[in-house]
Amino acid sequence: MTALLQLDAARTAGALTTAGAADALAGALRAGLDPEACPGRTGVPVPGGELLLMPAASGGYAGVKIAGVAPGNPALGLPRITGSYLLLDGPTLRPLALLDGAALTALRTPAVSVLALRHLTGPGRPLRLVLFGSGPQAYGHLEAVLELRELAEAVVVARDPGRAGALAAHARALGVPARTGTARDVEGADLVLCCTTAREPLFDGRLVAPGAVVVAVGSHEPDARETDTALVRRAAVYVESRAAALREAGDLLIPEAEGAIGPGHINGTLSDLVAGRNAVAARPSCPQLFKSVGMAWEDLAVAVAIYHATGANSET
C-alpha cells in the first residue's frame, strides 16, 4: 500500500490561501453536495474538555476529523483546539492523508466566512470592520477579509487589552488603520466579525446599522451565543445548513426559545447564496447575519483541496 501522506500544521496551513479554500467550498456546493444531508457532529465530554467527531463523504473522498476542545490549554501555553484529519479514498476507504486538524479548522472557518461575504457584501468603498476576539480565528478572519476587501479601519474588541492591542498592531502591520475599541463601536461598522468563546451576547444588536453584515463563528452549542435577540430579530439570517443551525446555533435557538423568532426566520443558506437563489440587495434595509457552526463537509472539501495542492492524488 502507498505510504500515508502526513501534513503537519505548517504544510496544512500553507497549502491553500483562504480564497482558495473558499473556492473549494463553493466548488463542492456547485457539484451538488447537500449540507442538509451531512452527518451531525458527535461530541463526547472528556476530562480536559470535549472530543468532537466529524465524518463526511462526497464524490471520490471520505474523511473524519477528530478534534479536541480544551478550554484550559491556553493557560498552559497550548492551543485550545487540537486534532487530526484522516482523508480517505471514497470507493475503497483507503487512507490517503493525515492532516493537522487544528490548522485545517483555522483555514476552513474563515474560508466559510469569506464565501458568505462574497455574496453578502457588494463592491464599493473600503469597509469599517469591528472584530471581536484576539485568538487564532480573529487573526485568520482579519487576514481572510483582507484578501476579499479593502478595510478603511479595523477596531479590535477583546477581553484582554494586551492581546487586543497586539491584534490591532498586527492589522497596522498589514496596512490597515487599526485600534482597540469597545462594543459600542458596532454602531458605525460595515462588517462585524465575532470570533470568540463567549457564551453571552457581545454587543447590543440595536446598534448595528441597516446594511451592515455580522458574521458569528465562535460557538456551536445550543446554549451559547455571540449575538443577541435584538439583532437576530431584525436581521436577514443566513446559515450553512438549516438542519445544523437548528441543532447547534444558540444565536438562533435562544431567541426561538424566547418566542422572539420562529424556525422560518432563516432567510437562506450558503448553498442558496452560491447558487444565486437569494439575491442580496446592494444596500439592504436591515442588517445581515451569517451564523456559522462549522460542518464536516467543509473540512472534507478543504482537506481534498489541500491534498491536491500538495501534488497528491488518489493514485499516489
UniProtKB/TrEMBL annotation:
Which domain of life, per UniProt? Bacteria
**Name of this protein:** Ornithine cyclodeaminase family protein
- Which Gene3D superfamilies does the annotation name? NAD(P)-binding Rossmann-like Domain, ornithine cyclodeaminase, domain 1
Lineage of this protein's species?
Bacteria, Bacillati, Actinomycetota, Actinomycetes, Kitasatosporales
Q: Which SUPFAM superfamilies match?
A: NAD(P)-binding Rossmann-fold domains
**Pfam families attached to this UniProt entry:** OCD_Mu_crystall
Q: What InterPro entries would the database entry show?
A: NAD(P)-bd_dom_sf (IPR036291), ODC_Mu_crystall (IPR003462), ODC_N (IPR023401)
